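TA notes. Do not distribute before section.
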Amino acid sequence: MRSANPMRAFSQSVALLVVSASLYAQVLKPAPEDQTRAREVFRQLIEIDTTHEHGSTTKAAEAMRVRLLAAGFAESDLLLDGPVDVRKNLLIRYKGKPGSSLKPILFLCHLDVVEALRSDWTVDPFVFLEKDGFFWGRGTQDMKDGDAAVVAALLRMKASHYVPDRDIVVALTADEEGGGDNGVKWLLEHHGDRLQAAFAINPDTGGVQGEKGKVVAIGVGATEKLYFDFHLTAKNRGGHSSVPRPDNAIYELAHALTKIEQTPFPVELNTVTRDYFSERAKQETPEVAAAMRALLANPKDEAAAAQLSKNPGFNSTLRTTCVATELRGGHAENALPQTAEANVNCRILPGHSAREVREDLVKRMGDPGVEIEFGDMKGKTPSHDPDDKSLPPPPLDPVVFGALQRTTDHFWKGIEILPRMGTGATDSIYTMAAGIPSYGISGFQIDEGRAHGRDERLSVASFDTGAEFMYRLMVELTTK
């Protein structure tokens, strides 16, 4: 047997590295059809009504399944399943390198959207429209932009014959926005083995932060609040409307809601929000920055808290928030109301439960005549147990943040990556509870928040950049 030639071995290694680098560059090189493909997927998703009230996530999931099959995905790698016919989810597995010992990466993408009434909008919310430099339609911000970017990335990988160093799993799911058939929760209960992953990426939170047209940071959802609804009811004996009394049910309920609104929850900082305000202070005006630093030094500084609370986003980051979102009362135009009801929606800081918040609300209202129950006005089962708490943030995985830094540098060299607390709530709460570290990451820049509101829209430039960002991130996460 001849002895190995070290120079020859070295030359072969260099050649392999050159080939790998070349393939890597080729995989990342965008082509005109990539943008077209992403926009086509976006259009198709927007024009499928996936509201809980009268839509179907199954239609959207099946449409994506048809696209993926046409692109060459095996039927065995596409699971369409769910508890009811109109609430099905699609689980997608993009096979990685054979024999890889690396655990898969999971991407969470909910397909459902909030109700949109045509009478409220200036355009049809379920017709994809490009106008004034924006894409219009329900879900353009929350979160069919992310759905389209992830699906388009899979299609692009398949077209380029890209082989990731591990499997990529994508969950396109139902009922994140409401309803009792949450897709991630249901899939974990019925197909938990298919969702096992080293970590999860959730494009439903995080994103590009801009100031006056300039990108200043990439926000990463590192922890989040807990969503919970409460049903408030006031009852009274009623009577003739010609003899008004101040104790009628609507007045009583209104007084209780006013007390909730006028007595905010106390300020509370955690490791993520402390880091967030510390870094955010570098971008703010001197007055706001001084308030942030004062509050970091003393969370009981009422003047600093009042200054920051003028900004709704900062206020939501500082404390648990509760707001009335629905009202119903009275039974006749000429009678004093005998019953009045309200839905109060709370976003609860990590470490606290709905049971704690209910007890606090009872004290704030100070009215035993107003009942407060767990759950909403429609009688739907709460999505969480009253004793559940949002989990503490996961460690900042160097694999995730290294890939994110490389991706970010491609678009915005030197821009800071800023972990933050999501003031809403996402499906990450289920994957975190299942032991899967979860991070909210998105490449979309939303300067005008219209999610859940009328005339929702996303700039064309933001979508194109965000779709390319997601593709590069997925490649960076799965390339040695």
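Switch to the second chain here.
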Amino acid sequence: MERPDQRALIVRERAGLADLLRRCHRAELLPLAEVLGIRAQGMGLAQLAVACERTLRRRGAQDLWNMVLRKGEGPSYEDVLADLARRKGVEVSGDVEATERALLEQWIETAWGDMPASERERVWRRLQLELPVPAEGHQALVSMSERLKQGAKYGVGVMALGGLRALPLLFPPLVPLAGVLMVGWFGRAREDVLLPAVLEVSALRQTVRHRVTIGVVGSPSSGKDAAIKAIFGLDSGNVNPVAGSTKAVEITRLPDATALYVVNTPGMGDVIEQVTEEARQVLDLIDVFVYIVNAQGGVQARELADHRACVARDRPVLAVVNKIDTLRESDRERYLADARSKLGVPGEDFLAAAFDPLPQLSDTPIGLEAVRDWIATHLLELGKDPRELPWLTECTESE
């Protein structure tokens, strides 16, 4: 497989602040809520995301009354960010992420020397950079910039999430920054909340981009385990799922990956009510679905219901008819046309494969490259960084 152009591997996140916050885990929003003075106890994910978004905009509105009068709900996050950048003398490029990063870089370069050594070391460890810690801001900025350019190489923290114990979630090294920001950095008191909040948003943006979750769904006889092994090189018999996964849902972080998760579930309909709230959150954040249909069983009522449940989550869904090698060649075209018609899917989201083919037909999976291409393409379209996908990693290492 030809490796995608490196410049296309990271697609800029264009979603607004509200959508970004909804795509986080609830626990990931807690540092931002703390900075904004929000009491998160009793709030669910959706409610907390709305509270954070509205509170941040209201904080920015204190300095943008003209925008408040012009826009009924107050300034947007983009307006708040642009105003903060202008006050700090940072160039506003029109790219939200670039502006956030420029503010962070200015903070490092200008406030670094005024920080106590203990605070500098704390930031340095958050950035996962090698000791010793530079004492001068420019040196720190150079090292930090190199670290950020590494892209997907972010640290993984471990968070206790009730029923889903010790679920590893991606924590970029910038989280949390609020505790290490120095008051001397702020020109005016009103920024002692706004700037830390912007930096928390920047960290969440990296979290969302670099975490990739792929759902593999299908009935017990469809060949999901064979599909996962063929696509990701992940043998379910040798790799333990994330602690807290149930028999109904297995959530596995790929070995050597920082933020690539595979969710193995027999179906999305009945399963949703059987798992913990934390596991349900993971299901809600699946980026793309690969729905496996057994060629021997065909599309029955259960398959149709589960496929519709995946589609209803408003994420890309690829339907793959597995074990196609077990059908007579003369029957395949008719069978595939019938299966696609029943599922009601467009041709670009429908493929045939044999992830564990009969030895006399092939000693390697059939249709594997097309499945992998579909996954990588749709992750890019969602603004995800797919560089930890095993087949892209292999391409990079072989060059």
